[in-house]
Specification:
Layout: E1 21-23, H1 30-39, H2 49-60, E2 67-75, H3 88-95, E3 96-109, E4 115-120, H4 122-142, H5 150-167, E5 169-173, E6 186-187, H6 192-204, H7 232-236, H8 277-285, H9 315-321, H10 336-342
Parallel strand pairs: 1-3, 2-6
Antiparallel strand pairs: 2-3, 3-4, 4-5
Helix pairs in contact: 4-5
């Protein structure tokens, strides 16, 4: 694609140049010759390319050479302040006004791109900036929710429009010069005004977008490993197999009996200190009843199958048989002398 060549007068905030930059080819189109003859009151010779170029440059460089690109019917106030009326015509007259988009030609190229470039006049730029500030920004703020930096974003939106409307240059085919009239004024033909209207309305109605939500990084705590010092106490505890019951101190186990319904075990008080001697003897004479021991109450787990623990002999049983008549292997201590003599 050929480079887009524009003069310095087409830059943003640049004043209008005293002369228009016109570049013609080696051959002049017949329609351009007819247009120049039509708009000139004084007959001028148009027999060569330099004559066409000189005539077109002088015509477009006139201070009165202002083109009307389009006309916009825009509201006078924001949507919340528009007046209501039963007659639509009266309502339109009260609430809307026309802004004419006027421009002047800054560049004509009939060699590389076959185009003509228009730049908006200062009066048109000022009118559009005022409308954007008073109407478009107000509607944009009303159409979005509130956030802390909303006013700053609205001001930034207006500043961006000021820059964009000053940089705006409408470029179209050189055949648009067929709408040229006397003293260099003109009007766009063949539907080119719709292109200007759509592009400027896009700039005016740019929405006020809130900032995107901030992404907060969630810091997750790494899982505790067996080597972690915090979980050292957990891993250092003795774990028992689910199928094997925990070891039980034999001194803390008391066989059940019909005479004893419940027993409270204290870790500091001997279990035999609260039971009278005659009750112990009665319990020892009764047939033993073994109750299976289960450690399910000490752990939050499923019930476990445990084997019964054999009853241990009570001290009363040992006390009742201890004496001089107690023997080992069928021999008593009262016959000690007999065995001693024999040996």
């Amino acid at each position: 694609m050929p480079p887009q060549l524009l003069p310095a007068s087409a830059a943003a905030f640049a004043p209008r140049a005293s002369s228009v930059n016109v570049v013609l080819g080696s051959k002049v189109e017949p329609w351009l010759t007819q247009t120049l003859k039509r708009i000139n009151r004084v007959k001028r010779p148009l027999n060569s390319v330099p004559q066409h170029q000189r005539c077109l440059t002088e015509t477009l460089s006139s201070p009165n050479a202002i083109w009307t690109l389009a006309s916009l019917m825009l509201p006078k106030w924001p949507d919340a302040q528009l007046r209501k009326d039963s007659n639509p015509l009266v309502e339109a007259i009260q609430n809307y006004d026309f802004i004419y988009i006027e421009a002047y030609i800054v560049h004509v190229d009939m060699v590389l791109r076959n185009e003509v470039a228009f730049k908006l006049t200062p009066d048109t730029i000022e009118a559009l900036i005022e409308h954007h500030k008073e109407v478009s920004c107000a509607n944009a703020k009303a159409g979005s929710y509130d956030w802390p930096e909303k006013e700053q974003h609205a001001k930034k939106l207006h500043d961006e429009f000021v820059q964009a409307i000053n940089k705006y240059v409408f470029r179209t085919h050189v055949s648009a010069l067929e709408g040229l009239e006397e003293e260099g004024v003109g009007e766009l033909l063949c539907g080119r005004s719709e292109e200007v209207k759509n592009s400027i309305m896009t700039l005016l109605n740019k929405p006020l977008l809130p900032p995107p939500p901030k992404i907060v990084d969630v810091i997750r705590q790494p899982p505790l490993l067996p080597s972690s010092p915090v979980g050292a106490a957990i891993w250092s505890q003795t774990s028992h197999s689910p199928g094997v019951p925990a070891p039980v101190d034999s001194k803390r186990v008391l066989p059940s009996s019909p005479a004893v319904t419940s027993t409270s075990v204290d870790s500091n008080t001997p279990i035999w200190s609260n039971i009278p001697l005659h009750e112990i003897e009665l319990q020892s004479s009764a047939p033993p009843f073994n109750q299976p021991y289960s450690s399910a109450g000490l752990f939050y787990s499923s019930p476990m199958v445990t084997s019964p623990i054999p009853a241990l002999p009570l001290p009363s049983m040992l006390a009742s048989h201890c004496g001089v008549n107690m023997g080992y292997g069928g021999f008593g201590w009262d016959r000690y002398q007999e065995y001693a003599t024999t040996m």
